[in-house]
Amino acid sequence: MNAAVVTVGDELLVGDTENTNATWLCDRLDARGVAVRRVTVVPDEVSEIARVVNEYHAEYDAVIVTGGLGPTHDDVTMEAVAAAFGRDLAANEEAAAWLAERGYSGSDLAAETTHLPADCRPLPNEAGVAPGAVVESVYVLPGVPGEMKAMFERVEAEFAGTLTHVLTVDVDEPESELLDRFASLRERFDVRVGSYPGEVVTVKITAESEGEAERAAAWIREHADAVEERSA
């Protein structure tokens, strides 16, 4: 399963807010074997959000959009997602009923709070007020981290892919001197290889087979100045 994550908000683009939602979602999706192919930040603009959602919906199995839900002037994500699918925004009775069960009447909330893309699947917001929605394979979640996490956990089982096994080996050599051995790793084993320099070079080995990951890690330990191995 391939997925894209779209985070919405001017505050992300100017650096006022750290994009922790994207990091958290990528980690949870990776743990389920889902390959995240894109992480994109877009402004609070209907046209930009709609364009990106439309493009990614055509390209990937699932798209997760976070941020821009609610009744304020810059909460335009639902409008944009509706536009991406050529749908109208409409009052959603299921969302309104769920909020009523929590003690919110129509007079308590702005009318737009429960306006969602037509024919969507509403997602209740257990940690807040503004509901989310699923439109085909696009999941629209709040931007508030606590609300986003609680809502994602309601639909997390709908995301699944091929689980991978990861091993890391720390090597006390310059990264530039390891290039030929990285090439040999990829030739000899069915693995992906990443390298991350710091005080030492951390070699990350990813494979669908646990045994293949272990064999590749053993090979690089034997053929490099390995100082430590860690499970990731």
TrEMBL record:
Source organism of the structure: Halorubrum tropicale
Name of protein: Damage-inducible protein CinA
Domain MoaB/Mog: 4-163
InterPro entries: CinA (IPR050101), MoaB/Mog-like_dom_sf (IPR036425), MoaB/Mog_dom (IPR001453)
